[in-house]
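Review form for a predicted model. The reviewer records the input and the model, then writes brief findings.
Reviewer: anonymous (R2)
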Amino acid sequence: MRKLRQPIYGSGLILDVGSGGNPHPFADVLLEKYIDTTHRYKQITIDRPTVLADATSMPFKSGVFSYSFAFHVLEHLHQPEAFLTELERVSKAGYIETPNALYERIHPFDVHLLEIMLIDDTLHIRKKSGPIGDDFIGTLDLLEHDSIWRKFFGRHPRFFHVCYKWRGKIHFKLLNAADNTDWFQDPETLHEIQTSELSEVAEKSLRERLIHILRSLRRRTFDLDDLLACPACHSDLTLQQDHYVCCSQDCRLRFASSPVPDFNNPI
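Model under review:
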């Protein structure tokens, strides 16, 4: 429900970065890198204009979104500064949510590369040295085995999450920029979307029906091609048959346009 409570700045288009299997109902465009469950619990949902791309090199023109959502994305990235810079470039404001360092210590995830805290309206980011940040607390799995911790976690989510609203500028400090996260090797993922995944899944639960209603209230008409740009050089793209071509003579990268625009793997 934290997604729905966020006040949205501006009346323009909204981007959901790392939308996964549960995109924000109000988002107009979805950006996702992975189409399988490598980094999440649910398969990707494709029920509106969707682009496959790396969030550190977004295939959008500058300033085309008035607002962006990034739920539980930042902590997965090797290059947090590149991601935050790209968010600033394509969006005028937004909301970033991640597990905080306390959550990461008591319940570490081996696909999370960063620990993050929000202090004085600034994101303090630290690269993890390994999948478990604390050799004692991190191995106890308190949320699974201790009912007191589990209840406290459920009743006080803001003690364990970073909830950061930004406008114009994202304030952050990367505390150990010289370190790397090479200990994490991204596993093999699916690269092709099945045609069946392009159809909107029938809503069954009350929660899903509510989200469907909220989504229907904000459907907008726009041309996705008008928003796209080359992720490498930010030049315009031209659509040629079934692929996009960068208009820059120094670049000329080509990307598949069907069944959805795919900027992960240049042709």
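Findings: The radius of gyration is 19 Å.
Further findings: Residues 206-217 form the longest helix (12 residues).
Recommendation: see findings above.
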